[in-house]
What does this fold into?
Amino acid sequence: MILSLWQVISMFDLDLEGVAEIIKKEGYRCVALQLPEGLKDSGVDISSRLAGDTGCEVIILGDPCYGACDLADSEALDLGCDALFHFGHSRIFKNARLPVHYIKVKIPRDPLPLLKDNLDKLPMRIGLVTTIQHIHLLDEIVSFLKESGRTARIGEAKGRVAYRGQVLGCSFSSAKDIADKVDAFLYIGTGNFHPLGVALSTGRPVYALDLERGELRDMSDVSDPILRRRFAAITRAQDARSFGIIIGEKQGQRRLSLAKKVKGMLEEKGRSGYFIALREITPDVLLPFRGLDAFVNTACPRITIDDTARYKRPVLTPIELGIVLGLREWDDYAMDEIV
It folds into this structure.
């Protein structure tokens, strides 16, 4: 079902009037919109609204957008745009090739009823983490937990993280900042990847408060099967002699120095590594490289974890490669992060 623009504005608390004001104030004649997948159904309506309110030409960038690491500033500039409006993610780049405006996409849900129903499952010292869409809920949750007699903490923003308590698919620094001061973490949001990353990067129990499904999940029930799949991939790669070293072409995922380090690690252990630069990393893209036994992904860490079952050959993180090569203990498994 395609929602009306009014419904979308209400559902995601979109400030299109604010966007129009920026366009008029800066005198932009042509702008690009980079939208997350969940907003693309409404992309035409958003474009029409902004063009009608400002007289500006609007170009929707239709390629998939996976985060602020996937910033399309070069594409917008090449199209003759004066600015890029990037929806749904926080800034991670200090510099861009043209002005970039980051537009918040909030999900205005009330977390307290679900939290009250599950309060007895939470320990006394709790760390709070979430994604950008729910960051506005943290202060309210802190107040509620304190009133219930618990201690609630929010970690500081570090590195590419913009807000206190925020976690990215490639950075859990705000969680690690307070890991030694809490008994467990409460993640507010949907999906399993982010809370799984918090669990693996901190060693603390994690509970996911899923406001969309209306449930509280103990991530230990989810993380164990995922870890078993990762350990299976590591085991399968033990006998691999030739490795494709994937370099991400997206500017926020490009870790060339790490890729070179990985190649050195392989060669020191008598194995071979070959650089493969990719913009989109999928099982089909890797299929033609039949001469390689396994791959090491230095691009987005999430690609390796989310799509494990879809790859015919092992795809490892650099940390997992360390285990394969005997440079790291199995018990020292950790999430790959971009810092």
Remarks:
- The mean pLDDT is 93.
- The longest helix spans residues 220-236.
- The first strand starts at residue 30 and ends at 34.
